Amino acid sequence: MTPEPLPEVQIPVSTRRGDGSMSHPVMDAEMQIRPVSPESKRLKKWFPGLVPSFAVANVVLFVVTMGVNDCPKNSDSCSLRFLGRFAFQPWKENPLLGPSASTLQKMGALDVSEGVHRHQGWRLITCIWLHAGVLHLLGNMLSLLVIGIRLEQEFGSVRIGLLYLISGFAGSVLSALFIIQSNISVGASGALFGLLGGMLSELITNWTIYVNKVAGLLTLVVVIVINLALGILPHVDSFAHIGGFISGFLLGFVFLIRPWFGWVSQQYILPGYSSASTKPKFKIYQIILWMLSVILLIVG
After folding, report:
1. 241 in catalytic set
2. Angle between helices 50-69 and 134-155 (to 10 degrees)
3. Among 34, 152, 170, 258, which is most exposed with the fewest C-beta within 10 angstroms?
4. How confident is the model at residue 48 (pLDDT cuts 50, 70, 90)?
5. Known catalytic membership, residue 189
6. Among candidate residues 253, 239, 244, 261, the one with its CA nearest the CA of residue 295
7. How far apart are CA 250 and CA 176, in angstroms?
8. How far apart (Å, rounded) are the C-alpha atoms in residues 50 and 236?
9. How far apart are CA 167 and CA 165, in angstroms?
10. Which of 167, 172, 189, 293 is an active site residue?
11. Are 66 and 99 in contact, with CB atoms under 8 Å apart?
């Protein structure tokens, strides 16, 4: 079961994919015709680097944020005070074990008043790299590694990196339209919901290559619904979740489209042999979904 990303956290301020059944079907004919090459063996051992680097960046920025926060300098009741300047804010102020709201605001949290009146649009990007506490950070990074590494292995660093960043940005934009003026928002949940949305659209557009299609679809839908339901909890920025999911869902049709099985099997025909007919690389429904998604993304 894919772990649930912790929700996008909205903090009040007073000053202003699945299991092994969803893998590609085994190409028995291909394995009989074409032996596995050393290049293919090396490819299978390839470990993606972009998603782990995203996780490291989030952790480093959280440590920096805690250093800037310096709780003992501003409070006498810090949690885990023995950590020195990296001690957490009092439990009653931040139960997620993290910095103060004012520190997050200083570091680049999404703040509508700052973004609109002072033209600090960069907050739409910086907020997805910040977290409200250790618990918030661990939940999101665990989800990122479990979901993101598999997607990066299958589709490459560029496509998954763009999917993650654009979804996070879109989640921030929708959040900025509806966030309460006295609140700030931080967290990578919008980007993570983009990955979940991309997984769903990838399953739909590449439907013909999967086994146990219905079981895989139902499992993924249940996971997504549970995660979206977290938006009803207090201080949860559900608009970031929705914006990230919708953009990731549309981007999945664009970035995560696969050639269908008939076209792939043609690539392994030995020289001197020819197939009865040349099969197209993509099916009609895949092309239609791709075009509709591009249009909706541009309009959106």
Report:
1. yes
2. 160
3. 34
4. confident
5. yes
6. 253
7. 20
8. 27
9. 5
10. 189
11. yes
Contact predicate 252/201, CB 8 Å: yes
- The candidate with the shortest Cα–Cα distance to 5, out of 270, 248, 258, is 248
Tokens of 250: 């549309």
The torsion angles phi and psi of 184, rounded to 5 degrees, stand at -120, 160
Report angle CA 123, 17, 167 to the nearest 5 degrees. Answer: 20
| Alpha carbon distance 144, 139 (integer Å) | 9
pLDDT tens digits, one per residue of 2-45: 556 666 666 655 444 444 434 433 333 333 333 333 434 444 55
For 154-263, strand residue ranges (E) read 183-186
pLDDT digits (tens, 9 = 90+) for 242-272: 999 999 999 999 999 887 665 555 555 555 5
Residue 171 near residue 81 (C-beta atoms within 8 A): no
Q: Give the whole-angstrom CA distance, residue 147 versus residue 102.
A: 32
- Tell me the C-alpha distance between 248 and 193, whole Å: 7
Global pTM reads: 0.79
Q: Which of these, 182, 199, 213, lies nearest to 251 by C-alpha position?
A: 199
In angstroms, how far is CA 295 from the centroid of its own chain? 22
Dump pLDDT digits (tens) for 167-222.
999 999 998 888 776 688 899 999 999 999 999 999 898 887 777 778 878 888 88
Task: State the pLDDT at residue 17.
Answer: 40
| Options 79, 172, 185, 241, the catalytic residue | 241
